[in-house]
Amino acid sequence: MVQERLKELLAEAEKLMAKADNKDAVERLRVKYLGRKGELTKIFKSIPDLPDSQKPLVGKSANIAKNKLEKLIKEAFQQAEEKPQASPASFDPTIPGAPPPLGHIHPLTHTIEEVSDIFRTMGFTVAEGPEVEKDWYNFEALNIPPDHPSRDDFDTFYVSDHILLRSQTSTVQIRTMEKNEPPVRIIAPGRCFRPDTEDARHSAMFHQIEGLMVDENVSFGDLKAILHIFAREFFHEDVEVRFRPSFFPFTEPSAEVDCTCPVCSGDGCSTCSYSGWLEILGAGMVDPNVFDSVGFDKEKYTGFAFGMGIERLAMLKYRINDIRLFFNGDTRFLSQFSL
Ligand code: DAH
Predict the structure, then answer these.
(1) 107-334, CATH topology level
(2) Atom of ligand 1 at shortest distance to CA of 210?
(3) Closest ligand 1 atom, CA of 153?
(4) Start-end of H helices in 86-159
């Protein structure tokens, strides 16, 4: 009788085990047969009550059954582990995929486009020049001869004796005037390089936009008007602009141009060191020596030029306090500028 029961139990266990497709189900079956109150355990517990003649035989059969069950359970556990948990039926190919993250233009590219658009409305076209330059375009033609102390202001990466990474976009003034006759009205955005130690305000690679206008009767008044319009369009219509006398080798007279602080509107704050003003660019009337370098008639023509740092403009406009954020590739920063 007991032998029959053992056979039944094994057959049943085998069937159920084949269906158990996860570890929990196998564990439930283990408890059902081998647990403290399990089916097989019950049989073991009943052995002492059997007639002595049956005890060894039943004991032996029960042990064999137990070994078989344990083997079954072990195998079932292994199988459940190998099986993927989700059943194939739960895969729905009609559900739309996760959308790939969309990129957007870099905040500096955006700023270059914004500035370029403003100058385009005033008749300027966009010119470009190489980043690896000749000494002539970065210095000599711009009235900065080899031993001139102002070369130090434009600290430079040299590739060889006369080849360098341009330290300013003023190079494009010369390239443009060499190829064209007046009138000239261009802006030139681009990358520049200086061996500066990087910190919150300095980067060895940065961007500038140069401007140049040459024609008969171009005056300092024209320069003031155009830069005022630019500042109003770029920052705010109430922004004020002031010119401070300065020196650049390629302009005479030269000026540094400030605008009222876009953060505090001139009241004074930590951004403008409580002065109410912020420097935004350098500018001036084209030095006659520069006209000589490119063969323009300095008696007939006058012109103005200006140059500004793009990072600085973007930092002021978007209240960014560390220039390195533009370049370290951290999308947590960049993704805030899907402008
Ligand atoms: N190139 C100058 C610099 O890198 C900026 C500058 C000043 C450009 C005056 C100009 C200018 O065209 O007229 O600091």
Answers:
(1) BirA Bifunctional Protein; domain 2 (3.30.930)
(2) 12
(3) 14
(4) 107-120, 135-138
